[in-house]
Specification:
GO terms for molecular function: dioxygenase activity. Belongs to the cysteine dioxygenase family. Keywords: Dioxygenase, Iron, Metal-binding, Oxidoreductase. The protein contains three helices and ten strands, in the order αααββββββββββ. It is an alpha+beta fold. It has a single domain, classed as Jelly Rolls (Sandwich).
Length: 155
């Protein structure tokens, strides 16, 4: 079974995605690098590649490819909550605090292959690949992305 078909099958059985069942969903998907390899997007205008694998009215599933020492933009997810699974490699989740003057770096969290973490809509963060090998992450957002914002952090 193709990985996209697997995603479609799994999301037919879940009417709601939240903190309580996100881990079960990832266990059912059990993404491996071999599963997602052909769906990876190489970076174009950004430092990272991004590919939407599945989207309906309740959920959006996307794949992020972070080459060596690359990062995403600092952003939030609007009204969406997200669950991020590290398919391969490792990632620093850089967390920022919003203030009246913009955003300021607060702390980071380190995740590696096989680990799952979450970001709520109001979480402002960037993901950074701190290693000499590529990182691949699978993201599930509910509701689908649409109202997030990109920030320029203070130096």
């Amino acid at each position: 079974m193709d990985f996209i078909q697997k995603i479609e099958r799994v999301f037919r059985t879940f009417s709601n995605i939240d903190k309580t069942n996100a881990e079960d969903i990832m266990l059912q998907l059990s993404p491996t690098l071999q599963d997602v390899e052909k769906h990876l997007s190489t970076p174009q205008d950004l430092e990272y590649g991004r590919n939407v694998l599945f989207k309906n009215e309740r959920v959006e599933v996307l794949l992020v490819f972070l080459p060596t020492f690359s990062k995403t933009l600092v952003h939030d997810h609007g009204f969406s909550s997200g669950w991020i699974y590290v398919v391969d490699g490792s990632v620093l989740n850089l967390l920022y605090m919003k203030g009246k003057d913009g955003v300021k770096y607060e702390r980071n969290e380190f995740y590696q292959k096989g680990e799952l973490f979450s970001v709520e809509g109001d979480t402002t963060h960037a993901m950074y690949n701190p290693s000499f090998s590529a990182t691949v992450t699978l993201h599930i957002y509910s509701p689908p992305l649409g109202t997030g914002q990109v920030y320029k952090p203070h130096e």
